[in-house]
Design brief:
By secondary structure, this protein is α+β, with helices and mostly antiparallel strands. It contains 10 helices and 15 strands. Helix content is 32%, strand content 33%. α2 packs across α3 and α6 packs across α8. The longest helix has 16 residues. The radius of gyration is 19 Å and the shape is globular.
Length: 314
């Protein structure tokens, strides 16, 4: 296996983490992988490095970083045979949790040797991606409040506080945030609502919570959640409902399935994908089925194959 390991030096900056990462990469080399180690920098992004891997016809790109670095790396990988692998050293590591690569909860350090074993012993599965405008995503797109928060959290604060930087900024901004009227077209059906947040999910988790518990990244659809309201109570009620497994769903929360979503608002709303700000509305979102080759644990591959067969049109 010829692989490029893309290292985010910020995500894996702790000395102990760095040593564990080198040990995990050494494990790959011991099992016959030919490894090229490259680090991202302000002048050399993960997307740029992944594009070089595609042009060089490598077998895999292994991202040693978090969900933001993974998102950058998949941009040139979609619709190619180059496989995505992950050594999770990021803040949340939601993609690794979704796929069963991670063993620790969100915001906790992950077992990198276990992740390396998945790369060696796992299987490759074609998974869906989402497309927001011209930007692919693996996890979800957020429109409104959460996208505003991703814009406001600066890099020094994120380095200092990690994932809690978003919690801190959200707590500051939530009391004064106001919903916006938006026109949301879901597979051609138009919904006009005042919303504080719209999420378009390819996977189940949002900040570690099961926001879209029925979502699957092999079903060929996206799970849309509309948070209708004028101010913060809508999001607080939704947060509490998610914490308790959605046993009761607030009437201000609406769930729909979609292959294509278009959102426009009188006041442009910010948009984020996989925790990274990418622009603002108007924007179209759509699912791109089976468009990315991802290395996952064998048990996960078996589950996904069964899931895809079960959800396939009869």
């Amino acid at each position: 296996m010829r692989a490029l390991v893309i290292v985010n030096p910020v995500a894996g900056s702790a000395a102990e983490q760095r040593e564990k990462l080198r040990t995990a990469v050494g494990y790959l080399a011991e099992h016959g992988w030919t490894i090229t180690w490259r680090e991202t920098s302000p002048s050399c992004s993960a997307a740029h490095l992944a594009r070089e891997a595609v042009e060089s016809k490598l077998d895999a790109v292994v991202v040693a970083g978090g969900d933001g670095t993974i998102n950058a790396a998949i941009q040139p990988l979609v619709h190619t045979p180059v496989r995505l692998g992950v050594l999770p050293v990021g803040t949340a590591n939601l993609w690794s949790i979704e796929t069963g690569i991670a063993t620790a909860p969100v915001l906790f350090p992950q077992d990198l040797m276990r992740a390396a074993q998945v790369l060696v012993e796992g299987e490759t599965v074609a998974v869906d991606t989402g497309l927001a405008g011209s930007h692919f995503f693996l996890l979800l797109a957020g429109v409104g409040f959460d996208a505003m928060i991703t814009r406001l959290v600066d890099l020094p604060t994120k380095r200092r506080l990690g994932g809690f930087a978003y919690v801190w900024k959200a707590a500051q901004e939530l009391p004064r945030y106001r919903g916006t009227m938006a026109r949301i077209s879901i597979d051609g059906t138009v919904h006009e609502k005042r919303v504080v947040l719209v999420t378009i999910s390819n996977t189940r988790l949002y900040a570690g919570l099961p926001l879209a518990p029925e979502a699957s990244f092999v079903d060929g659809v996206l799970n849309v959640t509309l948070f209708e309201g004028r101010s913060w109570p809508t999001l607080v009620l939704a947060l509490l409902s998610a914490l308790f497994g959605w046993r009761v769903r607030p009437p201000t929360v609406h769930r729909l399935l979609a292959q294509e979503v278009h959102i426009v608002a009188p006041r442009p709303l910010p948009v984020q994908v996989d925790g990274e700000p990418i622009g603002e509305t108007p924007m179209t979102f759509r699912v791109v089925p089976a468009s990315l080759q991802a290395i996952v644990p064998r048990q996960t591959a078996e589950r996904l194959r069964a899931e895809r067969a079960h959800r396939a049109p009869k």
